Amino acid sequence: MYFFILSVFLLILGYLLYGTFVEKTFGACKENKTPAVKYTDNVDFVPLPVWKVFLIQFLNIAGLGPVFGAILGAVYGPVCLLWIVFGSIFAGGVHDYLSGMFSVRYKGKTIDFLVKKILSKNFSVIFMLFLVLILILVGAVFALNPAKMLANIFDSDVLIWTIVIFGYYFLTTLLPVDKIIGRFYPIFALLLIAVTISLLICLFRMNGSWFAQETFTNLHPQHMPIFPLMFITVACGAISGFHSTQSPIMARCLCNEMQGRTVFYGAMILEGFVALVWATLGIAFFHDQSAYLNAVTTLGQGGVVAKISESFLGNIGAKLTVLSVVILSVTSGDTAFRSARLTISEFFKINQTNLTKRLMLSILVLSIGISFTMTDITKLWMYFGWANQFLAMITLWAISLFLKKKRRFYLISLIPALFMSMVCFTYIFYEKIGFNMSAQNAKISAFIVTLTILIFFTRKVYNRK
């Protein structure tokens, strides 16, 4: 119990202290007019109240990560909580705030503009394609998974729910941001928070210790290495490159730069809290790491969610919990398609206030997403965890170069960039879906690649403009 309480306290402290430091480092200024104010078009640039922007941002970035990722990460034991806390404060929060505020400062631009501006114009083409592919893949998977969950809840056909979800995706991709997203997403976010708090109350009413072994050593029953696997597995609960694709949506709705810490950094801290709850629930409920791993393997993360919530909240409570997880998935899937539309339109300079052009792009990205659901995307999805963190790594390096160019304290992003580089390269060198090296050789190879990138970083010189 004390591990969890301390973890929550550190998250709050991180937001108040380190979040403020990051904000000052960036140089947020309330006098600067935001894109929502300067370029209001009542489609994508729409000023919204800060509480709405915060809740929508939280829902957009969350996806299944803080639930499914935390459940998988908790198989390693309480050490998972350490990464969720320190990852959220020093990596995820920094990544989300700086990428979001870059968008606010530069006309609501998407993350590929940052790469183009800071890294390379030629690389930005490849990066844009990589980005759109990830977004559409996320949208497709985040349609299939909730369709299966809904079919299970209501004992109906998966295909019907898939069609319904894609119909909903079409509307949220096409319509102005305040019509559906701005009206209903704050309510959905509050539902998720209410379910999380309900489960937390049940957790506090449990008898006995929450952690059978109060240690930060590796408790994985199969002794899978913590580094780099756990840091890829937890994903959104600590840091996620997907977040940088979502932030520009809300960057176009923010009314004041001083609201950025609440919206971008704060949403990441709240997501870290949700991940803490689910990681703790998994460990405390099964109370044995071998039994926990067996449950995850046989039931899947969705089954574990249903089992825990039904035991704590009863049948109706379990359905509400599963429904909240469905909402998490759907509300990240639709904004993934919306972000894909924005990325393509920005890259090719396609006016999105024109309904016909917006309709064509919406149909394009959704058609590709539908085609993904008709094929076996299992193997492609296996690379998503790595690709997601690789995107975070690229974003952190680009942000570091941006801060360096502005003569700011760039270590706040450089240190997590170095760490995530070691994680991503070690993972792809070590895993069977990558180069299948030994653990030692994978780490050595990752160190060489990371060092090479660092040398490039130190040699990069900018004029201060």
Q: Tell me, what's the shape? A: globular
Tell me the number of helical segments per DSSP (H or I, 4 or more residues long): 18
- CA-to-CA gap between the ends? 51 Å
Number of strands: 0
CATH topology: Amino acid/polyamine transporter I
CATH architecture: Up-down Bundle
Query: Based on helices, strands and strand pairing, what is the structural class?
Result: mainly alpha
Mean pLDDT: 92
For the largest beta-sheet, the strand count, sense and barrel status come to: none
Helical content class: over 70%
Low-confidence stretches: none
CATH class: Mainly Alpha
Entry keywords:
465 residues, single chain, Amino acid/polyamine transporter I, globular, mainly alpha
Describe what this molecule looks like in 3D.
This protein has 465 residues and is an all-alpha fold. The protein is built from 18 helices and no strands. The longest helix is centred in the C-terminal third of the chain and has 59 residues, at 289-347. It has helices at 2-26, 35-38, 50-62, 65-73, 79-105, 111-118, 121-154, 158-174, 181-204, 226-233, 242-251, 260-286, 289-347, 355-373, 378-382, 384-405, 411-430, 439-459. 76% of the residues lie in helices and 0% in strands. The protein has a single domain (2-375), classed as Amino acid/polyamine transporter I. The model has no long low-confidence stretch (mean pLDDT 92).
